[in-house]
inosine/xanthosine triphosphatase (Planomicrobium soli), 182 residues
Amino acid sequence: MKKIHAVIASSNPAKIKAVSTVLTELEMAFELQSLETDSGVSAQPFSLEETRLGAVNRAQRALRCEADIAIGLEGGVYELEGVLHLCNWGALYSESGELYTAAGAQIPLPKSIADPLRAGEELGPIMDVYAQESGIRHHKGAVGILTAGLVNRDEMFQHIVKLLLGQYMLSGDSVACASKHL
Ligand SMILES: O=P(O)(O)OP(=O)(O)OP(=O)(O)OC[C@H]1O[C@@H](n2cnc3c(O)ncnc32)[C@H](O)[C@@H]1O
Ligand SMILES: [Mg+2]
């Protein structure tokens, strides 16, 4: 069975856990490397386009370490009918240069979170103040706080990783097919 070499373009534990959980569930032989890459967008993306681009840039930059696949995951916010929403995007680049993208959960943000975001603060620290906890971005995330723990950030990213890997496996572009019983 060929071992798939995957890179996740972040050192955020919620993102690393999402990828390793999905690869483990798929019973793939894999090696997962974590590599911090520049997203090439602002620290707090403020539109669907910017959030998606952050994920794509991360994946593209992470592929430079000669992996079979590189995955970028990015959280952001965007405005819908006057309400700021959390949004999440993922991108997967295969070693042959094919790009796969997918969006994940979106959920409205309360005004007390949206106001400081509009004033230029980052969501991570705002969430820590809001929930009176520390390092929320690294585990349950805003989505975990806003769903009473029913969907934590790593679970939310797992869904995106499945959407990415599923498209990649279907494409025939995939060492993943050889590495798994598909
Ligand atoms: O180290 P990286 O990979 O950059 O991880 P990050 O937590 O900064 O995550 P993103 O860059 O993808 O997210 C962009 C911003 O939105 C924040 N953010 C996004 N989703 C969040 C969530 O569910 N909970 C807390 N903060 C979140 C995050 O803290 C950043 O300020
Ligand atoms: Mg970040």
